[in-house]
Specification:
By secondary structure, the chain is mainly α. It is built from 19 helices and no strands. The protein has two domains: about 325 residues, Hydantoin permease; about 100 residues, no CATH class. GO terms for molecular function: L-isoleucine transmembrane transporter activity; L-leucine transmembrane transporter activity; L-valine transmembrane transporter activity.
């Protein structure tokens, strides 16, 4: 496969990643981080760019999708965890978020204040949005491909234009850190990177890229890994540029538009300040169509997976189920949707990270499940209570003990138990002959 073709596949991977979460979180991070934007952005890039790149490479290394890796723990875990990931990136959070971000950036700024605060405009918009999603997801391949090829470069240019304008004629001075960013900007932004859902998106979309390589005649595992490193690097560079640009826009916007509830509102107001109503209209149209493309892709991917796991229900049936559920769930609004997703992502993200990292070294221990299990069980225990705490449910007898773990206050208390568990699994592994 030529370098040019591999570069195009890298752009396609970038297009798959560039969705609602990639757009709304960096501007708000910029507002909250203020003068600590640099250190905060490093933390965000680790979980928002570095780990998704590793996840993509893990899929290439495994030669299969998420369930291929998760089955190395246990077949039941493989199905259960894969379903949870698809539901999280799909109808529970990822798909509804495409509609709410489209509304926040593309519709709400143009409504009168008295109308924007009511619930019915969002309800009407989500109905229309998901009717279109259903219509196109039933036969998505050609149309989504065409829309993605046009709109992703346009969106990148729009963001670039906003970033350049914010540098040449800044909206204001960079503000002061807010909230947790006053005391722990790196770790706060590290966890904030979970909200992009890019690690679990990589685990879902990775098999799409593998199949693309196969269609181009790249069949050997070593050749696929080499091609994936190149394509993944292209996508990672693109994402990093987008995140840094949007973060800077947010950091310089505080004195003009004030601290906002979510990044969608930050970007909508900032575009109006920088380019006036004309800039807001261009941004709105581009965001709506880009999010619509992501919605179609996610509905299609989820429907495809669940129709294979539950063949009694057809692909078309699952398209309707996921789109209707997403339309209902989207009506809680963007801010509330993000708040609901935080506890769930705090629970499943550490498991996904540990699973990805172990998949690179499992040949060293013969892929024996005991190592995976010993690493994932303590990770799950800590992350479950992190998630409960994120939902304002404090199980004090347990959290008081967990608070003694290193980095617990930074919400990555699972890290040391995962490492210790993996080491114990390595010590025990000679006692187990079963290999996967």
């Amino acid at each position: 496969m030529s370098i040019q073709k591999n570069f195009v596949i890298g752009l396609m991977l970038f297009a798959l990643f560039l969705g609602a979460g990639n757009i709304i979180f960096p501007p708000l991070l910029g507002q909250m981080a203020g003068d600590d934007l640099f250190i905060s952005m490093i933390g965000f890039l680790i979980t928002g760019v570095g780990l998704p790149l590793l996840a993509i490479l893990a899929i290439a290394n495994a030669g299969g999708g998420l369930q291929t890796i998760a089955n190395r723990v246990n077949p039941v875990f493989g199905i259960a965890f894969t379903m949870i990931v698809y539901l999280a990136i799909g109808p529970f959070f990822g798909i509804p978020r495409t509609a709410t971000v489209s509304y926040e950036i593309g519709i709400a700024p143009f409504l009168p204040d008295t109308v924007a605060v009511s619930n019915w405009p969002l309800a009407v918009f989500t109905v229309v949005f998901f009717i279109i999603t259903i219509a196109l997801a039933l036969n998505p391949a050609k149309l989504v491909d065409r829309i993605g090829k046009v709109l992703t470069p346009v969106l990148f240019l729009v963001i670039g234009a906003l970033a350049v304008k914010s540098i040449v004629t800044p909206m204001g001075d960079i503000g002061q850190p807010q909230g947790d960013y006053l005391t722990k900007p790196f770790f706060r932004s590290f966890v904030e990177g979970y909200l992009t859902m890019d690690v679990i998106a990589a685990l879902v979309f990775g098999i799409v890229i593998i199949n693309t390589f196969k269609a181009e005649g790249v069949t050997g595992s070593r050749a696929q890994m080499k091609a994936m490193i190149f394509a993944g690097s292209i996508a990672a560079i693109g994402l990093a540029l987008v995140y840094i640009s949007l973060g800077y826009i947010g950091a310089t916007s505080t004195s003009v538009i004030g601290i906002q509830e979510n990044g969608g509102t930050v970007l909508a107001l900032a575009s109006k300040v920088l380019y006036g109503s004309y800039g807001s209209i261009i941004l709105a149209i581009t965001i709506i169509f880009a999010c619509l493309t992501t919605s179609i892709g996610l509905v299609s991917a989820c429907a495809q997976y669940f129709s294979e796991v539950m063949p009694r229900l057809s692909y078309k049936t699952f398209v309707f189920i996921f789109a209707i559920f997403s339309a209902l769930f989207a009506n809680v609004g963007l801010t509330q949707l993000i708040a609901i997703s935080i506890p769930v992502l705090l629970m499943i993200y550490p498991l996904a990270i540990v699973l990805v990292l172990l998949s690179f070294v499992d040949k060293w221990f013969g892929r024996k499940p005991v190592v995976y299990i010993m690493a994932l069980v303590p990770t799950a225990f800590v992350s479950i209570f992190d998630g409960l705490l994120g939902a304002s449910i404090d199980v004090k007898p347990v959290t008081s003990i967990l608070s003694n773990l290193p980095l617990y206050e930074q919400q990555i208390g699972w890290l040391v138990p995962a490492i210790v568990g993996a080491l114990i699994g390595l010590v025990l592994s000679p006692l187990f002959k079963k290999r996967i």
